[in-house]
Write a structure and sequence with these properties.
about 15% strand, alpha+beta, 3-stranded mixed beta sheet, about 500 residues, globular, 16 helices, 8-stranded mixed beta sheet, Amidase signature (AS) enzymes
């Protein structure tokens, strides 16, 4: 007798880890899982526009049947076996367009997967399409002239952030079990904060990037995981991470943990031994008034800090201890140099200027007169900043900051031009709060902390010591256990 099909939500509401177990125990077939997610996508994606370049459903079901046949033979590709996955549209996917939100890339179809996609496919996922991004990934607001704007499911009139905005929304609306992304200026953290999820920026080098035109200087961006649970963050990180000779500055292992697929098992064991009473968190807040913040952000972050205190952590207000403006100026130099190098090939044809958004052109043009000496001076400033942060970690185990300086804003805006009447002098100045973990290459997770009176979500960054990814995830995992009243709050309309 044929068993009735499982309700869609029974499958799509599962965490990625639980879904993996259900597939491998044959509670659900890979076909049932794919059918449930395709139905969910058909219902929800037209409202939020998070997933793009979706593959043919019949082909996806055929791939799911192949995964079921493998399991019937006792074969599993890995923990992601048969799970639907959409790759961020800045990462190459063989046979699927990688558009980067640019009209100039509309017809680009890579012949080969990027390294991150290769590793996730090797773990068994089925790539169903891509997740939407801003043009060239620039700006924490996922809109572009090719696919349009991705909308926040907690309020469809608001932005979901970016550049991993499509990934974050697909997670929040249960169109994906887990999501990949990348982070240059908060691109894993900002959209996670605005969709009530977890976004983890790994230590620089933890997740190798390939292909890359430059493998030595371009060390501000990194790929990484997003999820609805810390367990799923850790599982996906374990798949994405690990040394590759294609990325010569990548890290060899997780702190002497060679079995990356079993990474979460170590995390769980270590969490059981984690003595929260000894963890000291330095709360940097708005950097003593330096960072403009919309009303309510510091207060809701302080709610999250009280949860840490409830775990036994010591939370102390803390001054950054150095002038932040020189750090920002050094950041601008680095960002101009790296972003301009990405935009320059498109401008070899002058006619392409008309098809590139003004923020990208501004980055390129600002770097036109940049000298090697100026870049080296900015690198010296960056080094001094990193060394200063090391002194903060002599007295504290973690640093905490809000994830963004504004609440989710009107999706019709390109970017916030003012915060509390203070003019933002660049298109990304309103996201200055995220540069500190990036500039120092430190592991950092955005954890959900609460909502404002309109029901809009906010997150807080927890920054760890150099290469202390496990420590950051341990603390986030403990925080997750006492934050269920926040985490259980789903998008109202979807």
């Amino acid at each position: 007798m044929t068993q009735p099909a499982a309700p869609m939500s029974q499958i799509t509401d599962m965490s990625a880890h639980a879904l993996s177990q259900a597939i491998h125990s044959k509670q659900f077939s890979c076909r049932e899982v794919m059918q449930a997610y395709l139905q969910r996508i058909a219902e929800v994606n037209p409202h939020v526009n998070a997933l793009i370049n979706l593959r043919d459903p019949q082909d996806l079901l055929r791939q799911a049947d192949e995964r079921d046949a493998q399991l019937a033979r006792g074969e599993s590709m890995g923990w992601m076996h048969g799970m639907p996955q959409a790759i961020k549209d800045l990462s190459n996917t063989a046979g699927i367009p990688t558009v980067m939100g640019s009209p100039l890339m509309r017809n680009f179809v890579p012949a080969e997967d990027g390294l991150m996609a290769q590793r996730m496919k090797a773990a068994g996922c089925i790539v169903i399409g891509k997740t939407n991004v801003p043009e060239f990934g620039l700006g924490s607001h996922s809109f572009n002239e090719v696919f349009g704007v991705t909308r926040n499911p907690y309020d469809l009139s608001k932005t979901a952030g970016g550049s991993s905005g499509g990934a974050a929304v697909a997670l929040a609306t249960r169109m994906l079990p887990v999501a990949d992304g990348s982070d240059f200026m908060g691109s894993l953290r900002n959209p996670a904060a605005w969709t009530n999820g977890f976004g983890f920026r790994p230590s620089q080098g933890r997740v190798p990037l390939w292909p890359a035109a430059d493998a030595f200087i371009s060390q501000l961006s990194t790929e990484g995981p997003m999820a609805r649970t810390v367990q799923d963050v850790a599982m996906l990180l374990g798949t994405q991470a690990g040394y590759s000779a294609k990325a010569p500055l990548s890290l060899a292992s997780f702190e002497n943990t060679p079995d990356l697929i079993a990474y979460y098992a170590q995390l769980k064991r270590a969490t059981g031994r984690f003595d929260h009473s000894k963890a000291k968190i330095g709360w940097l807040g708005d950097l003593s008034g330096y960072l403009a913040m919309e009303p309510g952000i510091l207060a809701v972050c302080e709610q999250g800090l009280r949860r840490f205190e409830g775990l036994g952590c010591t939370v102390e207000p803390m001054a950054l201890g150095i002038a932040p403006e020189p750090v920002w100026q050094a950041w601008l130099v680095w960002r101009r140099a790296l972003v301009a190098a990405r935009i320059k090939p498109f401008l070899l044809n002058p006619k392409n200027r008309a098809s590139i958004k003004p923020e990208a052109l501004w980055e390129h043009d600002q770097a036109a007169t940049l000298t090697g000496n100026e870049l080296m001076a900015a690198s010296v400033q960056r080094t001094a900043f990193y060394e200063h942060l090391l002194t903060l970690f002599e007295t504290h185990d973690f640093l905490a900051l809000p994830t963004t300086q504004v609440w989710p804003f009107d999706a019709a805006l390109r970017w916030p031009s003012h915060i509390n009447g203070i003019e933002m002098d660049t298109y990304h100045r309103w996201m200055e709060v995220v540069i500190y973990a990036t500039f120092a290459g430190l592991p950092c997770i955005s954890v959900p902390v609460g909502f404002d009176a309109r029901g809009l979500p906010m997150g807080m960054q927890i920054i760890g010591k150099p290469q202390a990814d496990i420590d950051v995830l341990q603390l986030a995992h403990a925080y997750e256990q006492v934050s269920q009243e926040v985490l259980m709050r789903r998008p109202p309309a979807l």
